[in-house]
Amino acid sequence: MYTLVNRIATSMETIIREGSPKTPFVRLDGEKGVVEIKGRSIPENSVEFYKPIIDWLEKFGEAPSEETNVNIQLEYFNTSSSKCILDIFKRLELIHKKGHPVEINWYYEEDDEDMFEAGEDYQSIINIPFKMIEMEE
Amino acid sequence: MAFDLKNWYLEKKQGDIILEYNGGITPELISEALESIENSLNMKNEKNRVRKKVYNVFVESLQNLYHHVDLPPSTAPVEQSSNFGIIILSKDGTFYRISTGNFVKKEKLNYIKDRIDQVNSLSDEEVRMLYRDILNNDEFSEKGGGGLGMLDIVRKTGNKLEYYFYQFDDEYIFFSLDVYIS
Fold first, then answer.
1. What's the pLDDT tens digit per position in B29-49?
2. A single Gene Ontology molecular function, please (chain B) (predicted)?
3. Range B42-51, long-range pairs (CB < 8 A, 24+ positions)
4. Chain A interface residues (partner B, CB cutoff 8 A)
């Protein structure tokens, strides 16, 4: 039993993906409990891009860290990414509901009403503490 | 009267042309087109808020084309690319216009028309609510967007979509869409 738990805990690799002109920087750190997505997200095939992230979260959900901090700092994203981002939040919501607190920090530039409203959209759908953080230009 | 692509171009090319493209709509083309408008002086001098909106709506428009375009009719005076589309981004006075054009099979006309008419008929608040509804429904379309594209464009621009259907021949329609950002 011990070895099995141990194996799950150590099998949670940290994923770092550098950003590209169409895809965001991603950092998934199971040990520290950090999920970070930054930049722009406009791939034609978002499902393909986000699949490894969803898979990682599913695994992480089996043995989550005590707390999870989620930082979303997107410049802009396409509609096909918007569903994938929701999917990420739904995975995190399950973790939060199981008693492992999750907090989402949603960053937006001070004059960016679109990104602010996008945050509001998710906030209205997802039951996780959601902090809107304004950044100065 | 027969549809004349040249006249269509003339009409859409009013103002300052930032980008014009016709041919196959591919992921590579979309990347290049975005990079090209990012490097344009018009965009560099634009307010952050407007600039981001233009990029966002521009990408959404091109990806809409990418996911939906067909092979053009063999008699059309254009490149016979399996995913042919036209995009023009211009600055006309105080607003940016994104015009797209592509050939569609006649039987798709009603579907497209109904879709746009529906989006155009909604108030800002209704657009926001419908967007949230679709976002949250579990149906994941093959293409990932789940029908949010047009709605997102209207929401971000705050303007109605202007569309025209021109009969090209018995089988094809030329579908023209204008989006304004101010």
1. 999 999 999 999 888 889 988
2. kinase activity
3. B42/B16, B42/B18, B42/B91, B43/B18, B47/A111, B48/A109, B48/A111, B48/A112, B48/A137, B49/A111, B49/A112, B49/A113, B50/B96, B50/B181
4. 21-22, 42, 44-47, 75-76, 78-84, 86, 109, 111-114, 117, 121, 124-125, 137
